[in-house]
């Protein structure tokens, strides 16, 4: 069941006092998913932009400003900040995968052993076979749980300082589409809870 149910939760967050109400209507947010995986970068940035736009916050995506080979050669800080400022952004939101773990576990089949004569299925061969037979053909199996740990940071572009940070854990997302459908909503909820988004 766990392998079929993706879940994302915030495991911790930090807020600078100056961040209260910082993400609000009329502000422009530069979104950067820091990964070499172009599909993951584009889909997550698009999903985060949708959530921001729904709250009347303009979103600018790094995938629209930096070419696919952007991460091959790191530009200078001045070049990067200049380009981001040129987008009209006030804030920068970064998302990065900081760790990934896999754990294989055994899921037992149905039924259990109860060697007590008071149960009816011990009365004869057929009653025994008809009860236990189906269970003998329901063997256990192994599943691999995948857990992804992400860190999301919010920076004030004018000072270039970190003003909010959150770490999250996603278990068995199943697919990239499942993840990008869930993660931005959880993230926005945490921003609101921390008083950063209003």
Q: How does this structure look, described?
A:
This protein is α/β, with parallel strands linked by helices and 198 residues long. It has one domain (2-100, 146-189): Rossmann fold (3-Layer(aba) Sandwich), CATH 3.40.50. Helices cover 30% and strands 32% of the residues. The protein is built from 5 helices and 6 strands; from the N terminus they run E-E-H-E-H-H-E-H-E-E-H. The chain has a 6-stranded mixed beta sheet with strand order 1-6-5-4-2-3. Helix 1 (38-53) packs across helix 5 (176-193). The radius of gyration is 25 Å and the shape is globular.
Q: Give the number of DSSP strands.
A: 6
Overall tally of domains: 1
Q: How far apart are the first and last residues' alpha carbons, in Å? A: 36 Å
CATH architecture: 3-Layer(aba) Sandwich
Low-confidence stretches: 1-5, 111-122
What share of residues is helical?
A: 25-40%
> Radius of gyration in whole Å, from Cα?
25 Å
Q: In what range is the share of β-strand residues?
A: 25-35%
Which overall shape is indicated by the principal axes computed on the Cα atoms?
globular
Top CATH class: Alpha Beta
Per DSSP, the total helix count is 5
Strand order within the widest beta sheet: 1-6-5-4-2-3
Q: What is the SS-derived class?
A: alpha/beta
């Amino acid at each position: 069941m766990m392998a079929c149910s993706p879940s994302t939760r915030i495991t911790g967050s930090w807020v600078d006092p100056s961040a209260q109400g910082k993400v609000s209507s009329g502000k422009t947010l530069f979104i950067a998913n820091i990964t070499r995986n172009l599909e993951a970068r584009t889909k997550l940035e698009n999903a985060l932009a949708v959530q921001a736009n729904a709250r009347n916050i303009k979103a600018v995506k790094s995938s629209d400003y930096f070419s696919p080979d952007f991460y091959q050669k790191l530009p200078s800080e001045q070049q990067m900040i200049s380009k981001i400022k040129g987008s009209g952004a006030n804030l920068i939101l970064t998302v990065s995968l900081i760790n990934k773990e896999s754990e294989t576990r055994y899921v037992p089949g149905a039924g259990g052993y109860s060697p007590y004569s008071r149960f009816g299925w011990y009365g004869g061969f057929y009653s025994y076979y008809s009860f236990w037979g189906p269970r003998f053909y329901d063997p256990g199996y192994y599943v691999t749980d995948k857990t992804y740990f992400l860190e999301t940071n919010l920076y004030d572009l004018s000072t270039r300082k970190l003003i909010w940070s959150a770490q999250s854990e996603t278990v068995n997302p199943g697919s990239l589409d499942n993840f990008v459908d869930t993660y931005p909503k959880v993230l926005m909820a945490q921003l609101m809870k921390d008083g950063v988004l209003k």
